Recover the amino acids of this structure.
């Protein structure tokens, strides 16, 4: 394992997350190689100065890399993990940016012994996707979850921490199950609530042209996640099904209780419940 | 009914909405009188230049006003409507900014004949409340719902439109039931979803200190409304109960369907459903 300054880094997948990571790392390591399926994407990444060199072939792109970061959707990562092992040099640190970690870390366990695997998930993003939206400042001040395996060496962890700090983020060590459970409640559930809200609005008010005018900033913010990339979200939901369903059940119970209190007219209890929630939300931010 | 330029306007309630309205109207009419319960609030409004004069007594504040705007919480408005009738001059236009309209408009029907009543609800706001947050630019470019009564004269409507346009907003005529049904889905439901989300997070992750770090911008935005003022929201929920419960039931069915699709693993249907919702949300904004 090399030091960051001397490391050749390959970023696989040049969308918003990968393109931004490449741009943030460029100049802080020996070189950044960007790997994308389409030559056009590599061309844009080069033109924007986000990478030193590009490749459209995974094997060529990661050749002799000291650190490889998979920045593709979760199920693409799961597939790439089955084929990338033989392409990597001894001691190579192999990370990913996938939004769920349990299945990815389980798959990483199967990698050949000469590779140092480490799960990762930066807690940042944007409403937009693709290389056009890439921004080297994206990771500034964000929490970057790292989910080490038992086999991940201290030296590999050191390089990963150096990378996280180089892009302005804070490393946060979690095991993969704990990450996925927290993400189900704080990220995947909000997405599904936003979808349910938009679905309800369409059903209840679609025939009324005034609905769009009446929908103010509250609706805008609460429904924002419903515009997320569907392929990315399907990968997340299908690889974190159990935790997502549990979070949904807990939320449905909360909603049911609120509906019961609104219906019953028991204002004292409704006020107490809403005030508790308000306090908790205000303490969070 | 006078023209706006010659009108003496009383704004009752100097919180975020009333204070901002007073500030936006000052200089565009003969004078703006601010009415608040506490002398301290009136003092701040005067010091900030939001009003010409102040009063802490409702009768004195609205004396000889050509236009009175009630900018208090919904149930305070309902109460004020029972006592304000005798204080107002003949032809006075009496409006309100309440977030629900059906009960307010029904109460306005009971006003003495010499008053011109008109329901109103500007579709704007802020996360913060109180006179300190008042901002004369708050109403710029927002939709301002007007819910006229059968008895509201054309001349009164003309003055109301002039006021709405003077503060930079666009008038939108709706009947009170239609407004309340739309608001239930686009505003009151999002509030309750945000509360259910925060309640679920507290229940599922309260013991885990990493939850706050993992919660990223998606959770922040989806949960934002849970920090709303509880007294204001209780007034809204209790005066729009039927429409709110209907919107909640529709949303619960949407959520239930999403949970079913996630659980079943029927990815084709889940993708189709999420893609429809995504398209609808992207067309909205």
């Amino acid at each position: 394992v090399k030091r960051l300054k001397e490391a050749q880094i390959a970023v696989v997948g040049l969308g918003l997350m990968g393109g931004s990571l490449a741009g943030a790392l460029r100049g802080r390591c020996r070189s950044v190689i960007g790997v994308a399926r389409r030559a056009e994407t590599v061309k844009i990444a080069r033109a924007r100065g986000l990478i030193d060199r590009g490749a459209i072939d995974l094997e060529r792109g990661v050749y002799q890399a000291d650190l490889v970061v998979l920045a593709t959707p979760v199920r693409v990562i799961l597939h790439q993990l089955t084929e990338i092992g033989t392409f990597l040099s001894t001691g190579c640190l192999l990370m990913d940016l996938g939004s769920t970690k349990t299945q990815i870390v389980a798959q990483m366990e199967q990698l050949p012994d000469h590779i140092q695997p480490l799960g990762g998930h930066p807690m940042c993003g944007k409403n937009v996707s693709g290389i056009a939206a890439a921004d080297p400042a994206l990771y500034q001040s964000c929490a970057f979850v790292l989910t080490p395996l038992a086999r991940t060496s201290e030296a590999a962890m050191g390089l990963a921490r150096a990378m996280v700090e180089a892009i302005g983020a804070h490393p946060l060590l979690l095991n993969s199950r704990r990450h996925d459970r927290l993400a189900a409640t704080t990220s995947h559930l909000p997405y599904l609530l936003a979808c349910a809200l938009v679905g309800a609005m369409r059903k209840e008010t679609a025939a009324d042209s005034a609905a769009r005018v009446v929908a103010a900033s509250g609706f805008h913010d609460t429904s924002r996640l419903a515009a997320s990339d569907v392929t990315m979200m399907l990968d997340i939901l299908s690889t974190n099904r159990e935790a997502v369903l549990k979070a949904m059940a807990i939320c449905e119970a909360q909603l049911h209780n609120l509906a019961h209190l609104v219906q019953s007219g028991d204002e004292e209890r409704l006020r107490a419940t809403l005030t508790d929630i308000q306090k908790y939300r205000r303490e969070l931010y």
